[in-house]
Amino acid sequence: KVDFKDNIECIDLIEKTSPPGLLALLDEECRFPKASDDTFLQKIALAHAGHRHFNKPKASRTNFIVKHYAG
User: Fold this and answer.
1) Which residues lie closer than 8 Å to 47 by C-beta, 6 or more apart?
2) Considering the entire predicted model, what is its pTM?
3) What is the DSSP string of 35-59?
4) In this structure, what are the phi and psi dihedrals at residue 65, rounded to the nearest 5 degrees?
5) Which of 47, 49, 57, 54 is CA-nearest to residue 68?
6) What angle is formed at CA 34 by the lines to CA 33 and CA 39, rounded to 5 degrees?
7) Is residue 56 within 8 Å of 65, Cβ to Cβ?
8) Count of other CB atoms within 10 angstroms of residue 10
């Protein structure tokens, strides 16, 4: 038996449009001619710094973490 865990907060982090989730921010970033991996990471780190399912490791400039439960 697997206990149900509601992952709506994590799903919203990824795909919500308002406020923009990770996919919406990626779509927006792809429209800028001088966008890069670094500018995308800065944008999502700023937008989701306080989100409990988002983390940006201090030791890395190029990674981010989405904390989720997949049972």
Assistant:
1) 19, 20, 25
2) 0.83
3) --HHHHHHHHHHHSTT-TTEE--TT
4) -125, 135
5) 54
6) 125
7) yes
8) 19
The two tokens of residue 42 are: 């800065």
pLDDT single digits (tens) 24-51: 999 999 999 999 999 999 999 999 999 9
Beta-sheet strands, E only, within the chain: 54-55, 65-66
pLDDT of residue 59: 83
Length reported for the chain: 71
If you search the block for the tokens 């670094």, which residue do you land on? 38
Q: Check: CB of residue 54 under 8 Å from CB of residue 48.
A: yes
Question: Roughly how many angstroms between the first and final C-alpha of the chain, as a whole number?
Answer: 10
